[in-house]
# Entry
Amino acid sequence: MVARRAVPLLAVLGIAGVAVAFAASLTLSPGSLGADLESVPRCTAAGLGVVQNVSGTTVVSVTVSSVPAACGGATLQATVNNQVTSSGGSTTVPGGGGSVTVTLALAVAITAVEEVDLVITGP
# Structure
């Protein structure tokens, strides 16, 4: 009976010994850890206007105004979050800037607490 219990224990110890042997055979070489600072250009640092377009009691799209011409060709992403539902969409900013409307994938119910996030990527 004792021999039957010892066999699994010996197998586990054998596997652990093989793992330690493999780890001991690894060679480590000195390396370096680096850091870099990159400047990311912005097409605008100005404030943008945001208007939620509603249908009934839900937000269905967001219109963003005052987008400068320097952002032309960029992708504008908008997300509306009411702490229960979050939905977003994206569109391309026209070459001259101006106003763009982003249609949300799902309508978001209007609540007392809402958040609209904007991200401009590119051009």
